[in-house]
Write a structure and sequence with these properties.
single chain, alpha/beta, Rossmann fold, Arc Repressor Mutant, subunit A, 2 domains, 5-stranded parallel beta sheet, 8 helices, 14 strands, 45% helix, globular, binds calcium ion
């Protein structure tokens, strides 16, 4: 799951990125307003962690831009401006949460889990798709109540397919979601996608799940519960 960290304090930005990376998120960082708009304009993020005071613009305008672009990213504001008005304005513009600085990284992580649960899983800690059960907080998947071991990429791939169920996802969209801007659209990334997709399907089916992942010839894939 891709997270965008918008924060001009370099040290704080990198400590958030390192922490969340260990929690198995893919993190991209924008150190200013302009970079943040560029990235939000180009890519989709699971959640944007957003500082309000940036050297070249305001975090509030970034929220407006994200909403105008109809980005469905979650937004968590992190700010040293702990005024009630800032908090209300941020939430009214569509942010999901507001965390005053200084904060602990474990609390940020808990808020992030909560935003993800609300966005994809109706706020539930456990979500069932017939015989497949997902526990997003602990990143576990069970088939017929038996836990299956998925790699980080296989898990992200399954969640991306499930949360976009009944929609056709192009290979390029999936590659961008899984690797972010760290990987170009080239032969290697297609091969990596085919490998992860093959392994995921095999693990689900070996555990007794039906094959819900439909290959759409020359386009991509669809998670089809029908
Ligand atoms: Ca700042």
């Amino acid at each position: 799951m891709k997270i965008l960290i918008v924060e001009d304090e370099l040290e704080l930005a990198s400590s958030i990125a390192n922490y969340l990376n260990c929690e198995k998120y893919i993190c991209e960082v924008a150190h200013n307003y302009t970079d943040a708009l560029d990235k939000i304009g180009l890519y989709n993020y699971e959640c944007i962690i957003l500082d309000l005071n940036l050297p070249d613009g305001s975090g509030f305008d970034i929220i407006k831009f994200a909403k105008m672009k109809q980005s469905n990213s979650g937004i968590i504001i992190i700010s040293a401006r702990d005024g009630l008005n800032d908090k209300i304005e941020g939430l009214d513009l569509g942010a999901d949460d507001y965390l005053p600085k200084p904060f602990s990284l474990s609390e940020l992580n808990a808020r992030l889990r909560s935003v993800i649960r609300r966005r994809h899983f109706n706020g539930q800690i456990e979500y069932c798709y017939y015989e497949i059960k997902v526990q997003p907080d602990v990143r576990q998947v069970l088939v017929n109540d038996t836990q299956i071991e998925l790699t980080r990429k296989e898990y992200d791939l399954l969640i991306f397919l499930i949360t976009n169920q009944r929609r056709v996802l192009s290979k390029e969209t999936i590659i961008e979601h899984l690797w972010g801007d760290f990987m170009g659209i080239e032969a290697d990334s297609y091969n990596a996608l085919y490998t992860h997709m093959g392994n995921l399907r095999k693990k689900l089916q070996d555990a007794g799940a039906k094959d819900y992942i439909e290959t759409i010839y020359a386009v991509g894939y669809k998670f089809n519960l029908d």
